[in-house]
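Quick look at the format.
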Amino acid sequence: MAADRIEVIAPNLKRRLSGVTATIARLIPVQAGKIGIVATGPGLPATVPHISLIRAATLPNTHRRVWHARRNTEMLLGLIYRHILRRDLALVFTSASQRVHTGYTRWLISHMDAVISTSRRTAEYMDRQSHVILHGIDTDRFSPPADRAALRQRLGLPDGILIGCFGRIRHQKGTDVFVDAIMRLAQDNPDVVGIVMGRATDKHKGYLQDLKSKVQSAGMAANVLFPPEVTVDQVPEWYQTLDLFVAPQRWEGFGLTPIEAMSCGVPTVATRVGAFEELVMDGETGALIPPGDVGAMADALAGYVDDPDHRASASAAARALMLKDFRLEREADQIIAVYRELLSSA
């Protein structure tokens, strides 16, 4: 992209895939049709407009640009570019954190020109005013299936009530609570099948193996499946196979999986952590439960397993809510409005 067209730079200073990297990868292609935006840094797909870090540091000061950081390192680099390299930058920081920030982070945030919080709860941890902009979802990619039975057959999945838990596999994510709840539920409902899919890093492979051993020892290998992790482009169709989804986290910053599931018309049971209380409408699009409570999770799921009409109404409500309030375009436009405000004040 020509230098005179670049209005916003979004750094990604982490090579390994993370939630922040995924956010940049899905947002920038949408925003690029509306504002001159590029990313910089490693680990991004070719579909994202991109310039090198060196070029970002040497762009001519013909006009002000926005530097949109999402990590401490990126805030610091933006300050270096502005104050040491004398780049004409307005600095924005987006936070998904729901904890008291360290003194260093608070210092960095205090030097930003604007701050975005990904939920109202996140905003409560800020020492300054912030724009609350919830994440959105690509409702075209994540949509209800045309033929769920055929999709299950193609993926080698059984009939019955399929309940999914997707994402990182570790104690913090509550995967063990999900497994225990499915095993409890399946004792009275043998058609219930839980699907645990995601990545267990080296540190958490023992945790995953313990879960598999527990399921095997209980004689429930047919009721709790552990398929291998799939690529990002395959994830929507796995949501589309489900009757119900569970987000069992003990702690979370934002967490995209509930809106990915609900966009596919899948009612979602989620714990009352992170932004989940702002995403799931309790009793309408799913249910909210305390974290770490196997009994509450099993009971909430049973209410949907035993009542197909309840599942159907929650499915329709979930999809309608995503189309109304959680489209990716809405998130992109609200962030662009922050950019425009900063650029117009140059």
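Next, a different chain entirely:
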Amino acid sequence: MNTSDLYELGFSEISHSRDREITGGFCGDLLSWVMGRAKEGDLWFTIMGNINTIAVASLTDVSAVVFCEGVTAAEDVINKAGEEGINLFSTELPVFEAATKFHDFCKDER
């Protein structure tokens, strides 16, 4: 699955710098926890829509960040994501439901 496939899940694009392969998923809001556990290529589900999220996404090299539960990103966050090449998406779904939808889609693709 690639980041361009996230539209099929109903996720909305905030910033899509480049299409990337998604190799796994990670849910978490405690940024230090995410830094130590998210893997390169993961799709990261979070409610943390601040500038520090972009720094962590860059450090971990996740494929994209999905802001859940209707969280929006401020313009400075979106601009920094663009500079760093971080793909951002959003959904109204809670984190668990968004991650389950992603998981089920990946399972059906196999």
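The chain has one domain: 3-109.

See the schema section for token definitions.
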